[in-house]
Amino acid sequence: MSEPKYHHRIPQTYMKEWCNGGNTVWYYDKSIQRSEQRNISKIMGINFFHSIKAGSIFTTQEALNKIFAPINKYKVYEIDSIGVKRELSKELMNRKFSDYDNWIIKDTNGLDITPKKRRIIYSEIKQISDNSIEEMWSQMCENSWKDMILMIEKNVNDIHEKKQGVLTDEDFRDIVKYFVILQWRSYKCYPIVRETFDRIADVLPNVMEMEIEESIHREDKTVRDELWHNFLLSQYYKYFNGEGTMFTQLESFFANLTPLFQIDKKERLITSDNPCFTFRNKDGYIEPVFVALPGLLISLAKKNPDAIGEYRIYEMNSTDVEYYNRVIFENGDRIISKKELDIENFMK
User: Fold this and answer.
1) pLDDT digits over 58-113, tens only?
2) Predicted structure pTM score
3) Diameter over CA atoms, the chain
4) d(Cα 133, Cα 151) in Å, to the nearest integer?
5) Is 123 exposed, middle or buried (0-12, 13-18, 19+ CB in 10 A)?
6) Cα angle for residues 134, 187, 19 (degrees, 5° grid)
7) How many helices (H) and strands (E) does the chain have?
8) What dihedral angle (degrees, nearest 10) is formed by the CA atoms of 214, 220, 223, 229?
9) What is the C-alpha to C-alpha distance for residues 260 and 252, in angstroms, rounded to an integer?
10) Does residue 120 register a pLDDT over 80?
11) Residue among 338, 331, 268, 329 nearest 297 (CA)
């Protein structure tokens, strides 16, 4: 089975609820100021974004074994800076892949391989990508998001309208889990982490803004881009293993925050490439917001230690929807909606 080339930053299964027929949504890109209908399979993603390739800063042993399989039956050496010949492990091959032309590659008889064979091995290695992170995202998001969020929406509506139904701690944990996942997968990511990274990077601006002659991922134009990209991949991988900054954020949010469910029966909410974000609301408070569905927005508020399991449900009116849609529009760069937007209304 062929591996996916186009990796979605925002999962297709999430965007699907905004489709207005088949797999099509209304899509507005602020950078080109154009509104058009687009298929969700072709938006909110980047080719091979989650892939690990030869020379990647972040990698795993499984990825190295896969990527450097074409050279398994050969011995690979380098002459180091003091003239000593040493054999290269797969980890060193990855770190020194840009120096491939200077490698000494011996066959099973201890002879140098031919220039043609060198080129073939190099080409084979370059064509291999490890897509484990993309596959893990698909298993986690594409396979479980829809059933989970639609069940939560149903329970919220039943509780609100019929005074029956229940929301469990597991439901709350799922909400927080997907808030963290979608925030980190969004183009703007978790702002505190991005700001911290940029402050550190700004210490060496001349280095960070250096252009990369041959980047592993085409969208990475500078050293800063490449380091940030690999940092994200490392955090995604750690999250799947129950560790790292993402997992710490999940545990903190679950322990300290509680949801406010805001329902829009007419399903007028828009969303964007930044579906989970934090902003200062009209009352002056910092409000984390999760645009879950066209008819469901979830805000997170500080948990009352004396009321464990407490949550609130509120039905939005037209003024509320207009307010939040404006906030969503302001916090995203690529907007999707069920109906074509009146862009001028958002520019007022």
Assistant:
1) 999 999 999 999 999 999 999 988 888 999 999 999 999 999 999 999 999 999 99
2) 0.92
3) 79
4) 27
5) exposed
6) 75
7) 13, 14
8) -130
9) 17
10) yes
11) 268
Percent of the chain at pLDDT > 70 equals 99
Residue-range domain boundaries for the chain: 12-47+133-347, 61-127
Q: How deeply is 220 buried, as exposed, middle or buried, from its count of CB atoms within 10 A (0-12, 13-18, 19+)?
A: middle
Nearest-CA neighbor of 309 among 203, 180, 173? 173
319, HSE (Cβ side, Cα atoms, 13 Å): 0
Copy the structure tokens of residue 231.
């940092």
Across the chain, the runs of DSSP E, i.e. the strands, are: 6-8, 24-29, 34-39, 45-47, 75-79, 85-87, 104-106, 257-263, 271-272, 276-280, 286-293, 296-302, 312-315, 334-337
For β-strands 257-263 and 312-315, DSSP reports them as parallel
Calculate mean pLDDT across residues 175-196: 93
Q: How many CA atoms lie within 13 A of 86 on its CB side?
A: 11
Q: Which residue has the tokens 């597991």?
A: 170
CA end-to-end distance (rounded Å), the chain:
50
Per the DSSP assignment, residues forming a β-bridge with 77 are 87, 104
CA distance 84 to 75: 16
Interatomic CA distance for residues 282 and 165, integer angstroms: 32
Could you give the CA distance from residue 315 to residue 329 in angstroms, rounded to a whole number? 21
Q: How far apart are CA 233 and CA 235, in angstroms?
A: 5
pLDDT at residue 2 is higher than 70:
no
Kindly list the distances between the CA atom of residue 149 and the CA atoms of 14, 24, 56, 320, in Å, as whole numbers in the listed order.
10, 20, 35, 22
At residue 260, what are phi and psi to the nearest 5 degrees?
-115, 110
Q: Which two tokens stand for residue 33?
A: 């100021």
Instruction: Determine the 3-state secondary structure of 85 from DSSP.
Output: strand
Token pair for residue 320?
A: 């509320």
Tokens at residue 207, please? Answer: 């280095």
- What does the block give as tokens for 177? 């889990």
DSSP structure string for 190-204 = -HHHHHHHHHHHTTS
| CA angle at 204 for the pair 203 and 206, rounded to the nearest 5° | 140
Contact 133, 237 (CB under 8 A): yes
Cα–Cα distance for residue pair 224/208, rounded to 1 Å: 5
3-state secondary structure of 230: helix
